[in-house]
Write a structure and sequence with these properties.
Layout (H helix, E strand, L loop, with lengths): L4 H28 L1 H5 L8 E4 L2 E9 L2 E6 L6 E3 L5 E5 L2 E4 L3 E2 L6 E2 L2
C-alpha cells in the first residue's frame, strides 16, 4: 500500500480553504445582513451582477467577494454592496449599503 502525501496535502489545503470561506461568508452575512434586509443569501456559486456585468461568486477575499465574470479569465474582487445585484428566484435584487448606526445614513463598509 502506498501513501499519497500529495493527496493528503491537497485535502488539507481544501479543508482550510473551505474553513476560510465559511468564516468570510459568516462575517459578510452577519455584517451586511443582506438576507434580512434584501432577501439575498450570499454564497459561493451565487450569480451576481456588478455594473451590468454578470458572473458567479467563486471565492471570498476577507470581507470581499471574488467574482468570475462571464467571459473573463480571472476572478475580480468586488465589494458586497458596491454596485452589486444578486440573482434570486424573484429576479435581480440590488444590495444596499449598511446603515451607519451613528448617523443613520448609508455607508459602504
Amino acid at each position: 500500500m502506498t501513501y499519497d502525501v500529495d493527496s493528503e496535502d491537497r485535502a488539507a489545503a481544501e479543508y482550510q480553504n473551505r474553513q476560510r470561506q465559511a468564516a468570510d461568508l459568516g462575517y459578510i452575512r452577519t455584517y451586511y445582513g443582506l438576507e434580512q434586509r434584501c432577501g439575498v443569501r450570499v454564497a459561493i456559486g451565487g450569480r451576481v451582477r456588478s455594473s451590468g456585468q454578470e458572473g458567479q461568486i467563486v471565492d471570498t477575499s476577507g470581507h470581499y467577494l471574488m467574482v468570475q465574470f462571464d467571459g473573463d479569465e480571472r476572478p475580480a474582487r468586488r465589494h458586497v454592496t458596491s454596485n452589486m445585484e444578486y440573482a434570486t428566484a424573484a429576479g435581480w435584487v440590488a444590495a444596499t449599503p449598511v446603515p451607519d448606526p451613528y448617523t443613520g445614513t448609508l455607508q459602504e463598509a
